[in-house]
Amino acid sequence: MYHTWMRFFTPGPAHHRLGLVCLGVGLQHGTLPTVGPRTLDHHVAVVVSTGRGWFRTPDGRRTAVTAPALLWLTPGVPHHYGPDPDTGWDEAFVDFTGPTADTYTELGYIEPHRPVVALSDAGAARATVGRIVRAARRGNPLLEVETSAAVHELLVTLRRARADTAPDGEQVLQALARDACKPLTVADHAMRHGMTPAELRTAVRRGAGCSPKDYLLGIRLGRAKELLAATELPVAAVARRVGYDDPAYFSRLFTRRVGMAPVRFREQQAHTVPGGWSDQVPDPDDPPIIGRTPIG
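User: That's the sequence. What structure does it adopt?
Assistant: C-alpha cells below.
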C-alpha cells in the first residue's frame, strides 16, 4: 500500500535562462514500487525522511539506504532503487535541470559520484520541498520563478544537512573567516589548526566548496568593499586592513576579481555614515523601526 502525489512543469525558454528550473515535485510514502533500472536526462533529488531501502549503482553494487538520506539521480547515469517491502519509506522528490547544476556540482553541492548521502536531518529539506508543493497550485502565475528559486534553496539546504559536515569543519571555517585579514599564508593557517595544507584544503573544500585561497580571498575582498564604501580610508590603508602590504598588488587583485578598480568601486558604492557603520547584524525577525525608542 502506498500513496503518491506529484506535479510536473514545463518551463518556457525565458525561464530556462534563469539557469536552474524545476521540472517536477512529488511526495510519496508507503511500500512504493521499485524504480528502474532507468536513465534520465535531468537531475532528481530524492529525500527519504523515514524508512529504509536500497540503491543499486550502474556497476551492480547495492547500497543500503537508511533515513534520513538523500538519493542523487544524475543525467545519463542509470539508477535502480526502492524501499524495503516490509517498512516502505517516506520520500519527497524534486526534478530539475539547467546549466547552473554544473556549477553546483563543481562546488560539491551535487555529488554524482556519491548517489546515496546520509543526512543529519531531513526536516529543513522537506520544508523547502513543501514550498515547491505550495507553489505548484493550479493557476499560479509565478510558478516557474518561485520553484526555480526554491531549487537553489533546496541545494543549499541539502548541503547543510549532510551528515558528514563535521562540527570541527565548521569551526575551521569560522576561524579562517575570523583571521582572514591577517597577513598569513594558507600554510600558516593550516599550522595554526594543527593541519597540513592538504588537510586544510580538504576541510575547506568539503565545508565551503572551494579552496582555502578562494575562501580567504572572498572574505578579504568583501571586507575591502565595506571599507571602500563606508570610509574615506586611502586604498593603501584599505589594502593593509585586509592583509595586503602591497597596495598595487591589492588593486590588481581587486580589479581582476571584482571587475573594476577599488577607486571606481568607491565612486559607485560610497555610503559614508557619520560615526561609521554599525557592526551589529539586524535581526530579520525584529527589524528596527525608525522612531521607536530603544528598550533599556
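The CA atoms of residues 22 and 96 lie 4 Å apart.
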